[in-house]
Amino acid sequence: MATRIRLQRHGKKNQPFYHIVVADGRAPRDGRYIERLGTYNPLTNPAQVKIDFDRALYWVEVGAAPSDTARALLKHEGVYLMKHLRGGVAKGAFSENEAQRRFEAWKNEHESKMNNIKREEADNERNTLKKRLEAETKVKEAVAAKVAAKRAAEAEAAAAAQKEAEEAAAAEAEAATTEEPAAEATETPAE
Question: Are both 66 and 106 inside the same structural domain?
């Protein structure tokens, strides 16, 4: 029985989520498996990988052949580095403590890189939101200026109409006062 470390696809359409499993090489992709080692979510940035490190190392050391993607994920998590370091310890190239020290140094460096990527992503998102907010503010200010100009024009038109109405009322009153004496004058000669 040839064992393989591979991915089982789960999730919805266009939203994949994978389980990392050890399975018989003849089993279907999403079929029976021997052991589940972890999960992989490619939709996050950076991709989220959770692996049971000790069990993955055990299966790699006993000869389970990983698929290309599973191999990349295991390398990313340091399983192959630890296998390499354990091989050096077995050959006597260095001690177990030295191997552990090297692995911890690699792990710290790897975590700092991942944290930098997350920080850069958060900064980019923050900057994008800030630029969007500034653009939206400019648009709001432009719309507010147009509305203010329109209201000012309406106010001027209303003031002009009121002034014309007052002038017309004043003209009518003036015309009425000038017409009254003329009407009295025409009535007097008729008597």
Answer: no
Q: What does the DSSP assignment read for 27-78?
A: S-TTS--SEEEEEEETTSSSPEEEE-HHHHHHHHHTTPEEPHHHHHHHHHHT
Which tens digits make up the pLDDT trace of 13-23? 999 999 999 99
Residue type, 121: E
Q: What is the domain count for the chain? A: 2
pLDDT for 130-156, tens place per residue?
999 999 999 999 999 999 999 999 999
Domain extent, residue 128, equals 95-170
- Which helix (H) or strand (E) covers residue 139, if one does? helix 96-190
Query: Are residues 80 and 15 part of one domain?
Result: yes
What pTM did the predictor assign? 0.66
Residue 89 tokens, joined: 């310890």
